[in-house]
Amino acid sequence: MKKNSWFLSFCMFMFTILLLGCQEEVQPETAQDNAPLTERSGAHGRAGAVTPEFTFTALRGGQVPFRFFPYGPFTQLSIDWGDGTQEVINGEPMEGISHSYAATGEYAVRIVGDLGNIGVLSFYEDGPTREINLEHLPSLQNFSMHNVSTPRILDFRQNPFIAFIDVSRTDVQNMLFSANAPLTLVNILDNSRYSEKGFQDLIHQAYRSATNNRIDYGGLYIGLQATYELIAPLTPRSKAELRVLRDIFQWDIYPNNF
Predict the structure, then answer these.
(1) Residues with Cβ within 8 Å of residue 253, at least 6 apart in sequence
(2) Signal peptide span per the entry (predicted)?
């Protein structure tokens, strides 16, 4: 049966919001919240160094404002949109954070502030990016980039709590994780260009997550919906690991014809 990737994204978001409400706040590793932004240099506001900061390159190609969605118990974020505009966000923005650019191009977006309490981060059709640096989001649990232009590689090695990922219908070809990342639900549906090595590594990471952390009833959505085929071939090891996830830990695997 086909999976509705939008529904999966919604379920991942709601489940993580519940988790965030039940957990203690995780404090940032540094005490530079609300630090002033430094002077910019280069085209479209290419930024000088500020630490810690969350950064990404926004792609502006149409009339729709760029928008993204950070959630968690943070109090304030200061944003440099890369076009000379700076903005302060107080409290959690339930409708997301948006900005209108005057001209088409690439813009280096820099965010400082209460980064340590961002647990959910999402980009959809109106939030295309070329690169993203997640290093200073230590509490990140839920990450979504759905049906949008994205970087080819996502690095979660500095996000030790990452558990729910939806990068379906994107340009993502590989993801990097810390050894003990507690992956619980990962959706790469219809990413036909996902690399074979990245595909095998993702299955192995999910297997290690389930076996090391005793995670039952997870989900792994790794197919092409139009053909009900896996995105890449299975090795003997990855096939055995998928069967353990499906048959022992009761994970929902799509497709499951292996």
Answers:
(1) 219, 220, 221, 222, 242, 245, 246
(2) 1-20
Res 106: pLDDT: 96
Where does residue 153 rank: exposed (0-12), middle (13-18), buried (19+ CB within 10 A)? Answer: middle
pLDDT on residue 62: 74
Residues 6+ apart with CB under 8 A from 134: 54, 121, 140, 143, 154, 155, 156, 158, 159
The contacts of residue 5 (CB under 8 Å, 6+ apart) are 146, 147, 166, 168, 169, 187, 189, 190, 221
Better-scored residue on pLDDT, 197 or 22: 197
In whole angstroms, how far apart are CA 69 and each of 18, 72, 241? Answer: 17, 10, 34
Mean pLDDT, the chain, rounded, equals 85
20 CB burial (10 A radius; 0-12, 13-18, 19+): buried
- 8 Å CB contact between 19 and 141: yes
Query: What is the per-residue pLDDT across 183-200, written as a single tens digit (0 to 9) for each?
Result: 999 999 999 999 999 999
Residues 6+ apart with CB under 8 A from 73: 20, 25, 92, 117
Catalogue the E-assigned strands of 61-119. 66-71, 76-80, 86-90, 97-99, 105-113
Name the least confident of 12-21, 93-102, 165-174, 204-213: 12-21
